[in-house]
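Case study B.
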Amino acid sequence: MKPVALDAMGGDHAPHATVAGALSAHRAGVPVVLVGDAHVLKEELERQGGDLPIVHAPEVIRMEEHATEVRRKRGASINVAVRLVKDGEASGVVSMGHSGATMAAALFGLGRIRGVDRPAILAEIPSERGKTYLIDAGANADCRPGFLVQFAVMGTAYAEAVDRVMEPTVGLLSIGEEAEKGNELVLAAHPLLRAHSGLRFYGNVEGRDVTRGTVDVIVTDGFTGNVVLKLAEGEARTIFRWVREALTSSLRARLGALLVKDALRALARRMDPAEYGAMPLMGVTGPVFIGHGASDARAVENALKRAFQMGQVHLVERVKDRLEQPA
Amino acid sequence: MKPVALDAMGGDHAPHATVAGALSAHRAGVPVVLVGDAHVLKEELERQGGDLPIVHAPEVIRMEEHATEVRRKRGASINVAVRLVKDGEASGVVSMGHSGATMAAALFGLGRIRGVDRPAILAEIPSERGKTYLIDAGANADCRPGFLVQFAVMGTAYAEAVDRVMEPTVGLLSIGEEAEKGNELVLAAHPLLRAHSGLRFYGNVEGRDVTRGTVDVIVTDGFTGNVVLKLAEGEARTIFRWVREALTSSLRARLGALLVKDALRALARRMDPAEYGAMPLMGVTGPVFIGHGASDARAVENALKRAFQMGQVHLVERVKDRLEQPA
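Model:
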């Protein structure tokens, strides 16, 4: 089994969190190769009392640098990690570092799947019926209508392959359920989605449908999608903060809080973005996962598991198959 | 004191909820005039044991009709209500009926404030620092950069006048804090907002800042704003549903729930859209409030109070003043 390549230098808490997450994933059966400064990573592995293969990368793209630096710094950890996939030595890549640089490295290093104009980020948001697959969650701020159809096909392939959703339904994010409601982009994309024979198109959905779980896949441009993702995460944090405050607002509430603590903790965990670890960049020719810079070890572990699973289910091939089907 | 004109035929629960809300608002000191079918409203008032002035309107715009029907049905309740404001007989309008028709009736009947290209809907979203004023929450799906500057000015005037916020800060909703992050609209609007001397422009904000309360006023196009508003409301409902489930998931949790019930109920109430009642349509020459079709009596009451307050603080004049200031 090919390992997943982890950009071990990426993220606010690297290399501590990346190495710790890699060791946990490895113990859970996921083969991992660390990519980064071999000296630094060897020391960190020793400190944590573990052992994992390392591929040396002499450079790193810092958060404040421009994404195009991946063109210049050929030896950056993200470039080396992507090259391992290209060369068939790794099954996928996970990075908690510079998101733009990861996208650029994947695009330049692996290339797009035929039929994909723009790779897109897929986010999983907890919903009342399980989860909602949101695509694009931030890769493309401005989109053409045809991009949204490709996003829909990729989101459908992901839901089917990774979570075995049967015939996933697709909704187009808009400001009213009726086909004539929306902005110019949505009005133009709606009939294209409706006409596509390979999609189970539900029609327009609204903001409230994201957590309600009205459809499996929600398609939108990367601007709206990124706002949605960050609002969904931010609001969950805000409400849990308020719930904690409410539970300490009186002696009576504090007593009750002791009894409900465990039940609420399980819920908070379900809402925690770290459960999902990182987000796949859909549409490039290999599994690439982009994580939060603030990722902790658990997020790294979950991202590595998810990336490994994407390879196991041959997601890239399934996206290719679906894109080759007649619209 | 001029009364607020209530489109008493509008909304899913009219005339029961509209009349009940009007009676409550009246008891709280808000003068109200009911607009609609005089026979129906008289009967409803008798049933509820109250008395309020009625202005007869022989027609109504039904939810399934097109907004442009306001041009044809001159005797529709929303048209009659708007005309009362135009004729100086009412201080403002509240409608829980057809939103598009209310906007059209206000636009045709009252007209725009000079300097406003597009009226916009302002929504109030609870935040960790009180509330966030979101504008545009749905009136204009496609916007030009200059519209966003006008929205910022109107949002600033509202926060100052209605809630006495001192020097409200304004954020531009985007997908990264840096000025170079965003879609074409945001990239073009950013320097205009930055250059405006009458605004306290904070810069870009992200989805997470909506409930965090990073700024007072968040400016965005009506597509993104409507998605944000409906997601914010929908997610709050979803999380409270999950909290209720968690609190009944075991005997232990159920016992604790008895003790924390009151504290959580106060929180749920704070998150309830009915607290805000309805949303003002900013930029027309009179206070117009647009409510949820599903509004209950409490939402109607709160909307009437808010509309009355808008008249008391001379909001329209304050928006005019601010728009006349040099940019």
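Chain B touches chain A through 61 residues (CB under 8 Å). The remaining cases will be described in the next quarterly update.
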